[in-house]
Amino acid sequence: MVLRANHRKPDPAAPPLIQRGELLASLDRAAEAKVTLISAPAGSGKTSLLRAWADGPGQPYRLAVVQVQRDQQDSQQFWIAVLSAIRQAHGTSGEGEQLAATPGFNQGAIVDRVRSELAGHRDRTFLVIDDLHELTSPGALTQLTWLLEKLPPHVHAILATRRSLPLRLHKLRLAGDLAEIRTADLRFTQRETRELLETSGIALSEAGAAKLHQRTEGWAAGLRLAAISLASSPDPERFVTEFSGSSRTVAEYLLAEMLECQPAEVQQLLLRTSCSTASTASWPTC
Prior knowledge:
This protein is an alpha/beta fold.
């Protein structure tokens, strides 16, 4: 039995998804290691990749998905979510046990229980933790490192994050048990850029498509936002020439996904130090 990831209702205004076969194949190969780390900025296509991979053909497996809540500082809530996801994936209920926060929380004990539950099931299991950058509890990150090093042989973990985390994964890396997919791996190729434009019904010259790919540096969100705007543009070639990080749709995305999620003091620093001219705008790189 394969437990699929939850799907959002399709957005009629959004361009259709394209099949990124080479990238999916790379994730399949990465799954041969014990842990896969997908690390890239907002809008790079991490979650879309995971959804497409989960929906693809393959051997039966159980899929336990944890979506870390924004600014998750409570390690107890995080581990309860992990344990709940594992039980849901395997169709178990913990023998009637109700998972809830308790005053006498023992982080080590619940991590042991998580590993025990994973080991108790013999089906191949993928533990997917998305938006891991939102986990700000040092204790939870330390315990997560321990769990990753002690995963049962039939369990593989996939971690998706927008930035580097204080996870000590050097032992896994040295042992060849860590596969990494980074920003460069997630960038659209020129061929994929042309395919995205074609499936979106946008007529653009080869030179125009190449220019758009160059200006976005293959950033998935930038390409999709450009495709949405191109669909209503009276002059697509001129639009591509003028398209940059200061374009309204891109600016709104960056504001919502990258600025507003920062702490207040970081927002103030970014606003004070940001350049005021559109010519210096660039795509996110960290």
